Each structure stands twice: as C-alpha cells, then as structure tokens.
Amino acid sequence: MVRAALVLRHVHFEDLGTFGPALEGAGYAIRYMTVGDSGFPGEDPIEPDLLVVLGGPIGVYEDPIYPFLKAEREFIARRLETKRPTLGVCLGAQLIAASLGASVFLAGVKEIGFAPVDLTDAGRASALRHLEGVSVLHWHGDTYTLPQGATNLASTSLVQQQAFSIGETILGIQFHPEAETGLGFERWLVGHAAELAAAGIDVPGLRQDGQRYGKKLELAAGALLEEWLAGLQGAR
C-alpha cells in the first residue's frame, strides 16, 4: 500500500537527504510543498499519512519578517491535535514545539559542526539509539523549551534540548541526521555561506568532517528512520 508523505520545505537545498530512500523503502510517495509559495498551505494538514517539516535559516519567532510562519504553525498545530505521524528536523522540530505552546528562542551559541549527541535513557530506548556514538550534523542558533507531554531524547554540552518525542507518532530532532555529506553538502555550504562566515566557521574543515563522518551517519540515519516508521504501524 502506498502511503503519502507531505514534506514542508523552507529552502530547496535542505531536503530529505538520506531520509528520502528510507521513506521510499517504507512505501511512502513523497511530495514537497515549499513554505512561503503562493497559496500556502491551501490543503488539509490531516490528510497525509506522514508530515515532515524540514529546516531553514529563519527563526520560528520572526513573524514580522516572515508572515507565513503564523500560517505554518497553525497548519502544524491542526495536524498535531490528531496525533497523526509528524516528524520535524531542526527548524521543523522548533515549529512543532512552538505549535504545542513551547518557547523557541536564541540558544546563545551557534552550534554548527559534527559531534555526537548524548542520548537520555528514553533516547537510548527509542529509534535514536542508532545514533549512539555517531557524529551528527548540528546547524542551529535557536533552541526550545520541552513541549508539555514531550520526552527529551538527546542533549549536548552546549544545548540541552536536541530531540523530543510525544508518544510513538510525533518526533522532533533539532540536529540534522538526514544531511547528505557528499556533493550534496556543497549546497549547504554555499546556501549558508553568510551564516558560516558570520559564525567564523572553518568551511574546509566542515567539509572534511562531512567526508569523515558521512557514511556512518548515513547508515545510522537510515536505521533511525526505518525503525521509527515501523513503530508507526504498531501505534495505529
């Protein structure tokens, strides 16, 4: 049976990445919707079998600059009311948190680069267990308070909240397990060039780290998503 996955995208180069093959392998037909396009959202948020909200270089709280954010949060909130399967990555996780009434705010640090996360006990018992000891890509300057009813799954020494779940069907991940670290990573390095320069990031070093850690991360991310998607079947 083919299932429908609707993917909300903020910038074209931040796509599903290595999550794409795992979704297709689980029988999902993927359709992107670019947030901010004319007519957004223009459809029922409840209808897709899975909603994925991806990252982007803006803040959840920047409504005066990006007015579509209010409509996007409302779209996500309507979805979350039903507890239908929803996955958020980076900005997407923050949008889920905000849609549930949590606060999203500046973390006080730009966390950009490859490093492992520290899994909580709940994280080690979840699909995130596949990331134990794996260097993942961090790329954010904001963070969030834990939404009511959510369970914290991971942290780092810089930012306490890195991933959360609500039941079996809602998952927010603030870092980027899905990031492609081969040629596709160049799109990130170019697209975020101004942010990288402002943060004083060593771009050649970041590229080298992507090459060093990429294959292990790709395998772990695929296993993470496969396990989480399989768990959705038992939750229905």
Task: Describe the fold and architecture.
This protein is of the alpha/beta class and 236 residues long. It has one domain: Rossmann fold (3-Layer(aba) Sandwich), CATH 3.40.50. The chain is 34% helix and 25% strand. The chain has 7 helices and 10 strands. The strands form 2 sheets. An 8-stranded mixed sheet has the order 2-1-3-4-10-9-8-6, sandwiched between helices. The chain has a two-stranded antiparallel sheet with strand order 5-7. Strand 9 and strand 10 (170-173) form a beta hairpin. The two termini are 15 Å apart.
Give the uncertain stretches in residue-range form: none
Biggest β-sheet, characterized?
8 strands, mixed
**Proportion of helical residues:** 25-40%
For the largest sheet, list the strands in their spatial order: 2-1-3-4-10-9-8-6
Features:
alpha/beta; Rossmann fold; 7 helices; globular
Helices and strands, with pairings:
Blueprint: E1 3-9, H1 19-25, E2 28-34, E3 50-53, H2 68-81, E4 86-89, H3 91-99, E5 104-115, E6 118-119, H4 121-124, E7 136-144, E8 151-155, E9 163-166, E10 170-173, H5 185-191, H6 193-198, H7 203-235
Parallel strand pairs: 1-2, 1-3, 3-4, 4-10
Antiparallel strand pairs: 5-7, 6-8, 8-9, 9-10
Helix pairs in contact: 1-7, 2-3
In short, what is this structure?
This protein is of the alpha/beta class. It has helices at residues 19-25, 68-81, 91-99, 121-124, 185-191, 193-198, 203-235; strands at 3-9, 28-34, 50-53, 86-89, 104-115, 118-119, 136-144, 151-155, 163-166, 170-173.
